[in-house]
Design a protein that fits this description.
There is one protein chain. By secondary structure, the protein is an all-alpha fold. The chain has one domain. It is globular, with a radius of gyration of 19 Å.
């Protein structure tokens, strides 16, 4: 979940320590797509996602207090983020889309979140958001036109559906009113793991689950642990701590670096090619995200 961004942009800067922490978080979130790909070498995607949320919930629920929100809200967030976002994302990344492009396309959740928020409030979509969406949609279109063995239309569609699920999870978290995201994510994971395990048994089958666990090596289990400890525990804890110390307008735009780290790490570690069309598509999507996130503050600052 990305918190809302107030305007105008404050005339302040992050201390070097906090800036390094913010970069570390987005680096973890970006390179996590490579980690996911490593885990998928042996584990079926739905089982991998189920194990991720199981370790996120246990032993965390015994160490962190339950957020003061209704159980149905925790269930909604857990289902949308677990079975929705990560379940679909992991299936897509099992040979249907490259990690670098997955880290880029999933970021369009920003527009789905904005659209859902506007629909709930009945507000009109401002012109700059349409322009931002057009830029990002053009970038997605470029990716679709260059579909090949590494990035298929099926994989692209799954990641877009995952982004929609992420947006739904954002709305659930927003309605909860929580400010400490780590306990919220940990307790909501109780509702993510069971349906993922059930889907794994139904869709992937016991044989695939057994073979995946037997073939899993140290790197595979390291990827599972990293999903829970690095991506969830470290990421949400540090991000929440930074937001408690600084205006969201200083912290949140750093998330624009996630696909930069994702595409860079995939190119360096997995040898993912970065042809001109892919760089151009990334530029369009990131320009759309930047316009949608930063323009309100630029306009307010000008006033």
């Amino acid at each position: 979940m990305r918190p809302s961004i107030p305007s105008p942009l404050p005339a302040a800067s992050l201390p070097l320590r906090d800036l390094c922490l913010a970069v570390a978080v987005v680096a973890v979130w970006g390179t996590n797509f490579v980690v996911i790909r490593i885990g998928l070498d042996h584990l079926p995607p739905l089982l991998f996602a189920a194990l991720r949320f199981l370790l996120a919930a246990l032993p965390g629920v015994f160490l962190l207090p339950r957020p003061a929100v209704p159980w149905r809200n925790l269930a909604a967030y857990g289902l949308l983020i677990g079975a929705g976002q990560f379940g679909l994302l992991f299936i897509a990344m099992r040979g249907h889309i490259s990690p670098g492009l997955a880290s880029l396309v999933i970021q369009i959740q920003v527009f789905f979140t904005i659209g859902l928020s506007i629909r709930m409030t009945g507000e009109r979509v401002p012109g700059y958001q349409w322009a931002a969406l057009a830029l990002a949609a053009t970038g997605i279109g470029v990716i679709a036109l260059h579909a090949d063995a590494t990035t298929t239309p099926f994989g692209l569609g799954l990641v877009i559906l995952a982004a929609m699920s992420w947006a739904g999870g954002n709305i659930a978290a927003k309605r909860s009113g929580v400010t400490a995201m780590l306990p919220y994510v940990v307790w909501a994971s109780l509702f993510s793991a069971p349906p993922l395990f059930a889907l794994a048994f139904v869709l992937e089958g016991w044989d695939a689950i057994r073979d995946g666990i037997l073939r899993a090596d140290a790197a595979t289990w390291g990827a599972v642990i990293w999903q829970s400890v690095g991506n969830t525990m470290f990421g949400y804890a540090v991000w929440g701590w930074l937001l408690s110390r600084h205006p969201a307008a200083l912290i949140t735009p750093m998330a624009l670096l996630v696909p930069v780290f994702g595409m860079g790490a995939s190119a360096l570690w997995l040898g993912e090619a970065l042809p001109g069309w892919k760089i151009g598509a990334a530029g369009l999507v990131l320009s759309g995200l930047a316009l949608g996130i930063l323009y309100p503050r630029w306009r307010a600052r000008g006033r």
